[in-house]
């Protein structure tokens, strides 16, 4: 933590020990069981219970928490050491259930939102056909049940343009999701707070927060190569949402019909032949947007070594460090 507010620090000598000074009054105890020491928490300092039985806080000194997140095992050890017990809510305060709804599969796991690490065992379901709202909701309910996550917050990446909680398009998903009140409907069905964003945006945010995009300035294009092609564009770390660059016109259709991983598998293309289409796509992105970095995520990112030598793009192209775990 960072502690400050000692009035004796003003004009003190460099060697003076600080941290015990204060003013003439104290603040009555204000404990709230819903507030715990998570990173960024601001609280008033106080002396120990043995000399401060009322647990009053200093009238001037305060501290800011900047500690790291803890694993479940670390929390258990701390409980044993201190003789305390964290509630389920406290233990899960930095966790959310992340669900990636794709055209062929629905993947989920518990995510520590501070560290970006996955804390559970990945759960997979096949995307139902047809992938109507009712069918998708049934899969989401099965996912919640698998993780015993009833009533807790959920984040969902979804293959559609999402604006103000409404899905405006439907990419590789049933057309009934067009103009669908997705945040409200999913929250009601799952009886919890659900936030839905474009799936590629979600994966891009993860890579820019925890992966190779962290701290990168300029224009970064993150693309996912799976059933389709998703994209997330960032300028100086800020997301330009819902770009859908996989839907740029190409030949008789759009680029994702030729350069997605699904296109490679469907047409039984060699890595070299498929990479030719991907190379055209990446060069087109470079032509119209002049990015400083292109990051590739999605299922095919783990095979980057098999096709990277067939790419000839005048900008750095790299695989996402989170591979297919992002989003």
From TrEMBL:
It comes from the Eukaryota. InterPro entries: ATPase_NBD, Cyclophilin-like_dom_sf, Cyclophilin-type_PPIase_dom, ROK. SUPFAM superfamilies: Actin-like ATPase domain, Cyclophilin-like. Pfam families: Pro_isomerase, ROK. Residues 1-141 form the PPIase cyclophilin-type domain. GO terms for molecular function: peptidyl-prolyl cis-trans isomerase activity. Residues 1-23 are annotated as: Disordered. NCBIfam families: PolPhglucPhase. This is PPIase cyclophilin-type domain-containing protein. It comes from Darwinula stevensoni.
């Amino acid at each position: 933590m960072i502690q400050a507010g000692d009035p004796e620090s003003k004009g003190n000598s460099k060697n003076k020990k600080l941290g015990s000074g204060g003013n003439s009054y104290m603040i009555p105890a204000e404990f709230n069981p819903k507030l715990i020491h998570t990173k960024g928490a601001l609280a008033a300092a106080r002396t120990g219970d043995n000399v401060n039985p009322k647990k009053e806080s200093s009238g001037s000194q305060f501290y800011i928490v900047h500690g790291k997140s803890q694993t479940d095992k670390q929390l258990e050890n701390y409980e044993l050491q201190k003789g305390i017990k964290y509630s389920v809510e406290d233990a899960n305060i930095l966790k959310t259930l992340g669900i990636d709804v794709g055209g062929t599969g629905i993947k989920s796991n518990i995510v520590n939102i501070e560290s970006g690490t996955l804390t559970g065992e990945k759960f997979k379901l096949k995307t139902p056909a047809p992938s109507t709202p009712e069918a998708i909701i049934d899969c989401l309910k099965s996912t919640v049940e698998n993780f015993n996550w009833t009533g807790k917050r959920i984040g969902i990446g979804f293959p559609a343009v999402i604006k103000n909680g409404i899905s405006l398009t439907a990419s590789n998903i049933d057309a009934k999701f067009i103009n669908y009140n997705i945040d409200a409907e999913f929250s009601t069905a799952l009886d919890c707070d659900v936030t839905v964003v474009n799936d590629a945006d979600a994966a891009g945010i993860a890579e820019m927060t925890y992966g190779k995009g962290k701290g990168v300035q300029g224009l970064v294009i993150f693309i996912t190569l799976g059933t389709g092609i998703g994209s997330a564009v960032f300028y100086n770390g800020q997301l330009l949402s819902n770009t859908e660059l996989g839907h740029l016109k190409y030949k008789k259709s759009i680029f994702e019909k030729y350069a997605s991983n699904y296109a490679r598998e469907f047409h039984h293309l060699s890595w070299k032949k498929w990479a030719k289409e991907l190379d055209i796509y990446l060069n087109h992105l470079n032509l119209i947007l002049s990015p400083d970095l292109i990051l590739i995520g999605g299922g095919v990112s783990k095979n980057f070594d098999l096709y990277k030598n067939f790419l000839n793009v005048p900008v750095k192209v790299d695989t996402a460090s989170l591979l297919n775990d992002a989003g």
